[in-house]
Amino acid sequence: MMESGNLLDGYKMNFKTDELSSEVERITATCQHLEQDVEVLKTIFSCIDLTTLKESDSTESVTAFVQKVNDFKTQYPDMPSVGAVCVFPVFAPIINQYLKVNEVQKAVVAGGFPSSQTFLDIKVLEVKKAVSYGANEIDVVISVGEFLEGNYEFVYEEIRQLKEACGDAHLKVILETGAIGDAQLIWNASIIAMDAGADFIKTSTGKIPTAATLDAAYVMCKAIKAYHSKTGKKIGFKPAGGIAETIEAVNYYAIVNEVLGQKWLSNTLFRIGASRLANNLLSDILSLEDSSMDKVKFF
Ligand SMILES: O=C[C@H](O)COP(=O)(O)O
């Protein structure tokens, strides 16, 4: 098992927490023009993990949700598809059966999402079942309570086993930054998740009051950069939860651009998990292309 001291020793948080917000403000203040850039907005659209994670989701509603993604490609041939659909694990067979757009990935939350408060063997089984039913991306939450108690080896070992359970599927590890709060701890959680095998690190479940924040995004991108410098591995970043407006998505795009650069700005390394963003972004893209366009509600 990895020693947490050894694990974190090689990584120093190279910024002061009190400078964090002003740095984020500087970045977001200088990116507002990107909201008018159709190509940037289309890139962001292609990075959306189009999410439905409602208690009321059903076979019928998820089938209809997936069908919209299929229809979108026909109805808007000049638009990219979203990056992925993201659903509860019980609907893995539905997206596997009905999703017909090859470039759209099949993401499933698992591992006792959203609380992560269950037995590790149950988490592993849930991940394996989701993958066996066709999911090729798995989103899991760290054991936040154990992390906050300093049980870093426990958190590392869980992620390591869940990554193993994924096989060829990509693993996105949700830190639940709104529950962690402190920038240094978000940095620590980022490093542990990446070293244990995360392909992406993700801010939030969208199921607690504080979801994605720009400050957390900045810290996580800095951690991804440090991890890349040390290991050569490119880990993806996924802000998620509460991101609904185009300008909010643009702000996250700008932080990734500033910290990690253009090479991170495609859906292989950047996703935005969102249930409400796609229609707003689509409407804004269409109205930039044709100012007479009304707001659309496709999804
Ligand atoms: O992982 C994605 C989030 O659950 C989506 O949250 P949202 O419904 O606030 O966009």
Automatic annotation (TrEMBL):
Which stretches are transmembrane? none
- GO (cellular component) term, any one: cytoplasm
Annotated protein name in UniProt: Deoxyribose-phosphate aldolase
Pathway per its UniProt entry is:
Carbohydrate degradation; 2-deoxy-D-ribose 1-phosphate degradation; D-glyceraldehyde 3-phosphate and acetaldehyde from 2-deoxy-alpha-D-ribose 1-phosphate: step 2/2
Record EC number: 4.1.2.4
The protein's matches in InterPro entries, at most eight in alphabetical order, are given as:
Aldolase_TIM (IPR013785), DeoC (IPR011343), DeoC/FbaB/LacD_aldolase (IPR002915)
A Pfam family the protein falls into: DeoC
- Superkingdom, according to UniProt? Bacteria
Q: Which NCBIfam families match?
A: deoC
Q: Name one GO molecular function term.
A: deoxyribose-phosphate aldolase activity
UniProt lists the family membership as follows: Belongs to the DeoC/FbaB aldolase family. DeoC type 2 subfamily.
User: Which Gene Ontology BP annotations are present?
Assistant: carbohydrate catabolic process; deoxyribonucleotide catabolic process
| Keywords associated with the record | Lyase, Schiff base
The reaction(s) annotated as catalysed by this protein in its Swiss-Prot or TrEMBL entry are: 2-deoxy-D-ribose 5-phosphate = D-glyceraldehyde 3-phosphate + acetaldehyde
